[in-house]
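Why should sequence recovery work at all? Because a backbone constrains its sequence more than one might expect. Tight turns favour small or flexible residues, buried strands favour hydrophobic ones, and helices have their own preferences. The token representation captures these environments compactly. In the example below, the structure is given first.
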């Protein structure tokens, strides 16, 4: 599904994983320059990406976001 959204809207996606769960999320650049993704959209949990190796980049290279 993320590949379809990439084609239709141009959105970029990553795969994230932590000790409790994992998932696929859309990458967003905030106006203040931070690169973030919504880990749990329903509960409003947002994580910042500070290093390219924190996540697996699915639809673009990390260099697109300045890493």
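From this structural description, the recovered sequence reads:
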């Amino acid at each position: 599904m993320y590949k379809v959204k990439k084609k239709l809207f141009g959105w970029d996606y990553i795969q994230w994983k932590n000790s409790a769960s994992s998932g696929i999320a859309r990458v967003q650049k905030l106006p203040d320059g931070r690169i973030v993704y919504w880990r749990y959209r329903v509960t409003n949990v947002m994580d910042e990406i500070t290093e390219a190796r924190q996540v697996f980049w699915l639809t673009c290279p990390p260099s697109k976001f300045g890493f």
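A few observations help interpret the result. The longest strand covers residues 22-29.
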